[in-house]
Amino acid sequence: MKHLMRKILAALLSASLIFSLSACSASSGEGQQSASQSADAPAQTAQAGDGKILIAYFTAAENSGVDAIASASYTTVNGQAMGRLRAVADMIQQNVGGDLFSIRTSVVYPTDGRELIDYAAQEQAENARPELTSHIENLDEYDTIFIGYPNWWADLPMAVYSFFDEYDFSGKTLIPFNVHNGSRFSRTIQTIQELEPGATVIEDGFTVSEQTVADAAGDVASWLEGLGF
Ligand SMILES: Cc1cc2nc3c(=O)[nH]c(=O)nc-3n(C[C@H](O)[C@H](O)[C@H](O)COP(=O)(O)O)c2cc1C
User: How far is the CA of 122 from the centre of ligand 1 (A)?
Assistant: First the structure.
């Protein structure tokens, strides 16, 4: 039964990723240039910020090597192509300020949607911990950490497990946000609570379908207002 459900989910995901890829290849040349610049940028290190807010996110689009523009993870916002999680992270930053932090790994994730699905399933089956190449140098500066990730196989991507393994967020507030294709958060917020028992994990995270990310700015602003920002 589980095997059958996994097959159905894989078929649905493939269809969705093919759609995303074709939408992506239709994006403007200007957007493509921006995206490849973003993907080629060096691994980030969070710097001391005034706001004491960190917006950390993982997107395959920034972990797919030089051909990342072909990644199934790209969306186009205001004419700029970028990873979907990066798009939501930008929307959060526009409202609350703070510093962006891209979770980078030494793994070069496949840009082909089907290959990425299989690769991620294998990583999950092996309970892998991809090596991280970006590190928060000054965690003490931050009280509030937004953490953004795609739903991968009804779970956190394994690179996000690596991220939670690396840091002890005790005493800090963690605010999840995610992008999905129907499963919303699955159990990921409880998982974060289990991984970081000393942190306050906000259960009212922000979740958005991959198909509506580009139009999510208003919903992001309302959500943040509801949280008291
Ligand atoms: C490997 C993989 C597994 C996925 N598994 C799920 C899933 O179980 N449920 C779901 O709703 N969406 C799933 N999706 C869709 C992603 O959550 C969605 O495409 C998200 O936008 C990907 O983030 P990104 O664009 O920043 O890479 C999956 C996508 C990939 C690539």
Answer: 15
* pTM across the whole model: 0.82
Task: Give the closest residue to 15 by CA, choosing from 97, 114, 99.
Answer: 114
Q: Does domain 2-226 have CATH number 3.40.50.2000?
A: no
What number does the ligand 1 atom closest to the CA of 61 have? Answer: 27
59: tokens are 């997107």
Q: Which of 11-15, 67-71, 98-102 has the highest mean pLDDT?
A: 98-102
| pLDDT tens figures, 16-64 | 443 343 333 322 222 222 222 233 333 344 443 444 999 999 999 899 8
Inter-residue contact 188 to 151 (CB < 8 Å): yes
Q: Are 40 and 66 in contact (CB under 8 A)?
A: yes
Asked if 36 contacts 27 with a C-beta cutoff of 8 angstroms, the reply is no
Q: Where are the domains of the chain?
A: 2-226
Cβ-Cβ contacts under 8 Å for 63 (sequence gap 6 or more): 104, 105, 107, 108, 109, 159
Ligand 1 pocket by C-beta < 6 Å: which residues?
A: 9, 13, 59-61, 73, 83-85, 116-117, 120, 150-154, 179-183, 210
Token look-up 């507030």 returns 173
Q: Mean pLDDT over residues 155-161, rounded?
A: 98
What is the separation of C-alpha 61 from the centre of its chain, rounded to a whole number of angstroms? 9
Task: Specify whether the CB–CB gap between 61 and 40 falls below 8 A.
Answer: no
Residue 44 gets which letter from DSSP? P
